[in-house]
Each structure stands twice: as structure tokens, then as C-alpha cells.
Design goal:
This is Lipoprotein. This protein has one domain. Helix content is 11%, strand content 54%. The chain is built from one helix and nine strands, in the order αβββββββββ. A nine-stranded mixed β-sheet has the order 3-2-5-6-9-8-7-1-4. The radius of gyration is 15 Å and the shape is elongated. The mean pLDDT is 86.
């Protein structure tokens, strides 16, 4: 699984060079996982499938974003003889005031078994928090 995550991460980095130019009439949300060996993907905007798993681009106004965050729980959080435990989680982030032409950043991470997500504006101010929408072992 670790090899799959690493390969996926490298492919995503290679794909970043091919990101489209942001539409100035919409808000752009970059995705960033804060920890190594993790993956963060765009899933849905307001119950509609995201057009690209690498970012969100939304009309101005209120939206609910759903992301998938995959990560490994370190053995230090499980037990002395444990192997890393891989988790596949979904999180929802609601924000009511996306503005056209602005760039936002959605970051995700985990503390032990618990995933977290924060939405930042262009000034790096936290403007939204993710709520867990379910996790499973992989």
C-alpha cells in the first residue's frame, strides 16, 4: 500500500505541472496534505462529482466540499509490535463565502486515527474546518 501511495503522490506531483489556469470568475481551492505518505483528493462539490481530483474550482458563494484523505497510522499510536494501519477517510468542509478570482487552500492531516482538514484564504487565515464523514481500513 505504501508503494501505491508513494507512486500516486509522485504522479500527482507530475500532474501539477499540467493544472489548468484558474478561471477568474470562479474560486480555486488547492489541495495539500501536510504529512508524508498521504493522499488528498477532491471528491464532490455540493453532491456533484468533482471534475478533477487535484483541486476544486467553484462558483462564488456557499459550497460544501467533500475530500478523500488516505494516511497511515503510525505504530506508536497502535502498539509496540504493530505495523502501520492505513486509513481511508472522507471529510466535509462547508464555506459560505467563496469569492471569484481568489485562491484558497484546503490542508489535511491526522493525529493518530483522527483526520483533520482546514480551509485557508489567501492571507493564510483559517476560514473553515472539516468534519469527518467516515473512515475505513484499507
Amino acid at each position: 500500500m505504501r508503494t501505491l501511495m508513494l507512486t500516486g503522490g509522485l504522479l500527482m506531483l507530475a500532474g501539477c505541472a499540467g493544472l489548468p489556469d484558474p478561471d477568474p470568475t470562479q474560486a480555486w481551492i488547492d489541495l495539500d496534505s501536510r504529512q508524508q505518505d498521504t493522499e488528498l483528493q477532491a471528491l464532490k462539490v455540493d453532491n456533484a462529482s468533482a471534475t478533477d481530483k487535484r483541486y476544486f474550482e467553484v462558483q462564488p458563494g456557499s459550497h460544501e466540499l467533500k475530500v478523500r484523505y488516505q494516511f497511515a497510522v503510525a505504530p506508536s499510536n497502535i502498539g509496540p509490535d504493530a505495523e502501520p494501519l492505513w486509513r481511508d477517510c472522507q471529510l466535509n468542509v462547508k464555506f459560505k463565502d467563496f469569492n471569484a478570482g481568489e485562491r484558497y487552500q484546503l490542508q489535511a492531516g491526522n493525529i493518530g486515527f483522527r483526520p483533520w482538514a482546514k480551509l485557508y484564504d489567501q492571507q493564510r487565515k483559517v476560514i473553515g474546518q472539516g468534519t469527518p464523514a467516515g473512515c475505513q481500513r484499507t
